[in-house]
Amino acid sequence: MKQYGISQEEAYDFIHKDVEECWKVINEELLNLNDIPKIALDCVVNFACMSELSYENHQDKFTNGELLKDCVSSLLVDPV
To answer: What is the pTM of this model?
Structure first.
């Protein structure tokens, strides 16, 4: 924000657009499967999904585990 002189909301918008573009690239590579082995792409997708879950809604759930409590509980304790 300091580097570009923008507000917090503008910074969030910039990050969201960047994340959307990255998902487009990942999905395109998944569909093409030309040069990169599928197992490597699966690792990238899983990491991206976990990163998105850990930092969604501008909260750091990686550092503050209490924020992940409901998610983990729904997966392990009360599965569908």
So the answer is: 0.61
